[in-house]
Amino acid sequence: MKGVLNIIIREIKYILQSRLYVLAMFAFPVIDCVFLGGIYISGNLTEIPVAVIDNDNSKISRTIVRYIDATPDMEVKYRLQNINELKDLFFRQKAVLGVYIPKNLQKDIKRQKQETVTLFVNSSNYITGNITDLTSQTIIATIGGGIKYSSLTKKGVPPKQAMQLLQPVKNDGARLFNPALNYNLYLTPGLWLSVLHQMLILVGVLTIGTEFDFKKIKTMTAAANGSLANAFLGKMIVYMSAAYIHFEVLYRIIFPAFDIPIAHSASAAMALSMCFAFSAISLGFLLSAALKTRLDALKGCLLISAPAFMMSGYTWPLDQVPAPLKLIVQIIPLTPFLEGFRKIYQQDLGIAFVFPFALHLIIMGMVYFSVSYAAVYLWNKKNEN
Predict the structure, then answer these.
(1) Residues 188 and 320 in one domain
(2) CA–CA separation, 343 vs 351, rounded Å?
């Protein structure tokens, strides 16, 4: 144990003496979390700009415009005269939705003639385009249903029967886990954990890569009373402890500060997170042990961690990912971790339900740790003379 303690003390000294270590471990993760949380803190998009071309200027057309403007999602900011003006707004990204109301809309409706309100959706941004399209379609359908209902009741159809004719199949349902479709609750935690994933791999890369760069593998082993295993264990204890502090701050302080609740418990999230930390740090060890220099290992770290969030299944379902890629992403620690974390965070499920993901992370971490240890051990044996 003395050898392990010597490595722990040695590693803490290195961390405190190196600005790169301090920035990588403490400053960058906190800054990134605050910055990313600040971007999505509103949770839902509001007052998305809408342009209207009202060629009818009737009671019905004004009702359509008023309903659109009354939704929290959208705001009628532009009243235009023609399609060319709308095109110009779209090209300059000033409007997301264009509503074209034809002339004689109200007259044609009263003549029992079907008319069309045309919706132009700027879908260059998928999120704003989808929200405005869905909301405006709902508004048009609601107003159309109201007009039809009024027509039926004027013809003597009882109100209850008129409603049944308008809606022969009644829709009933409930949104689960994120009923308000809050973007902050959906995306921000995944981004925060992706940042920590990068940090954990990075410190794993730096701690072994530094020993290679400064030719201190033998010095490190000597400090561990001649045991490379003690050296690896001591380093892992230091960075697992740092990871524990990070996750405590994240779940106990940052999550509440941004009003993001964990449905089950922070303790369950912490248990899974420590399995994740072990796996990610071990992956960093492996990259350094395999690539030897810090520069090459950092390139490897960037290659893995940069696309990890997009490939993790958090935003795009894993069952829609091609089979070869699916196998690759399953050996990146972030993938099983986010799958398990979402069950704790959103679905209120405990350790029993996330045990397969924890086991996945532990086995993966043990493989990475063992292979990295073996690589450094063989290198040490080869260069001991």
Answers:
(1) yes
(2) 9
pLDDT classification of 291: cutoffs 50, 70, 90: confident
10 Å Cβ neighbour count for 190?
Answer: 19
Cα(330)–Cα(313) distance, rounded to whole angstroms? 10
What's the average model confidence in pLDDT over 178-199? 86
**Torsion region of 125: left, alpha or beta (phi above 0 gives left; psi -120 to 50 gives alpha):** beta
Q: How far apart are CA 346 and CA 262, in angstroms?
A: 7
Which pLDDT band, with edges at 50, 70 and 90, does 170 fall under? Answer: low
The Cα 84–Cα 57 span in angstroms is 19
**Secondary structure element (H or E) that encloses residue 348, with its range:** none
Domain contains 317: yes
Range of the domain at 119: 48-166
Contacts of 321 (CB under 8 A, 6+ apart): 311, 313, 329
Q: How many residues does the chain have?
A: 385
- Sheet arrangement for strand 74-79: 74-79, 48-54, 97-101, 118-121
- On the question of pLDDT at 103 being above 80, the answer is yes
Gap between the Cα atoms of 274 and 333, Å rounded: 12
Tokens 């690589």, located at residue: 375
| Contact (Cβ atoms closer than 8 angstroms) between residue 103 and residue 55 | yes
Which residues, in sequence order, are CB contacts of 143 under 8 Å at separation 6+? Answer: 60, 63, 64, 67
173 in a domain, yes or no?
Answer: no
d(CA 33, CA 343): 21
- Are residues 142 and 254 located together in one domain of the fold? no
